[in-house]
Recover the amino acids of this structure.
């Protein structure tokens, strides 16, 4: 009898197991294009993120909510991978040298980045008396100190190894002066410097991506989404370190892990 039960159990395991599959994951593929100062200068960012239940990401908070009779609800987006690219750009800003008006020159070269760290979430607003069917809201930004990876682990940016390439010293020439700090930022380009020329002096500083804007604005700046839709387009404008930025988002939801436009600079 025991042998028959064991054989039956093994049969059910072999037949039923292939039919029981985990629910497919939902991925968010983000493509962001930023145009700078209305010129041909651009910066692009691509990211793939995967949905995770909020109570799995924050188990301690979920346990606390449960002990109080509540439930931690919501969806967090964990990073699968992200990258960025920028074109070369040279621009000028008004300044003064010894009391006389002149121009300061800022320039940087074309470069790309595979050290890019982003975060996001889907916020479902509670029903309101005057509008019980509010759309969910997508929020996204660049990380400030840690990043949630697709395996559920948190990684601090300062613990992620990366290579910094400073000024190249040419024999017989004075090395370029470096000013300001060089930090473990959320977007690290292979060539992560910009050159400044002012009042007859030249030096280099750390490059600041225009996507640094999202370190702060992602907290308060989101946009409604239709969860039934597959692609969404949103346009934003902002000013970053005297630069005028026009930005276009394209966000695609899919059960496919591969980004459909990975590192493609799409021309509309």
């Amino acid at each position: 009898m025991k042998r028959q039960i064991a054989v039956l159990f093994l049969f059910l395991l072999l037949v039923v197991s292939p039919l029981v599959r985990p629910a497919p994951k939902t991925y968010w593929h983000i493509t962001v294009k930023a145009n700078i100062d209305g010129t041909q200068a651009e910066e692009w960012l691509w990211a793939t993120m995967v949905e995770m239940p909020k109570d799995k990401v924050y188990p301690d908070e979920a346990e606390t909510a449960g002990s109080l009779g509540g439930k931690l609800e919501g969806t967090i987006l964990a990073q699968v991978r992200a990258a960025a690219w920028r074109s070369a750009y040279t621009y000028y800003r008004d300044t003064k040298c010894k009391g006389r008006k002149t121009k300061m020159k800022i320039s940087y070269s074309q470069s790309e980045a595979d050290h890019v760290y982003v975060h996001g979430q889907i916020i479902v607003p509670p029903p309101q008396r005057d509008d019980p069917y509010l759309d969910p809201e997508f929020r996204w930004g660049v990380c400030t100190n840690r990043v949630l990876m697709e395996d559920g682990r948190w990684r601090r940016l300062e613990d992620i190894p990366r290579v910094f390439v400073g000024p190249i010293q040419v024999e017989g020439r004075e090395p370029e002066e470096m000013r300001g700090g060089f930090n473990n930022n959320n977007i690290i380009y292979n060539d992560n410097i910009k050159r400044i020329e002012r009042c007859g002096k030249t030096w280099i500083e750390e490059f600041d991506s225009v996507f640094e804007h999202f370190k702060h604005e992602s907290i308060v700046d989101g946009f409604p989404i239709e969860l039934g839709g597959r692609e969404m387009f949103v346009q934003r404008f902002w000013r970053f370190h005297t630069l005028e930025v026009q930005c276009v988002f394209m966000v695609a939801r899919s059960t496919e892990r591969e980004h459909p436009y990975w590192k493609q600079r799409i021309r509309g």
In short: The mean pLDDT is 82.
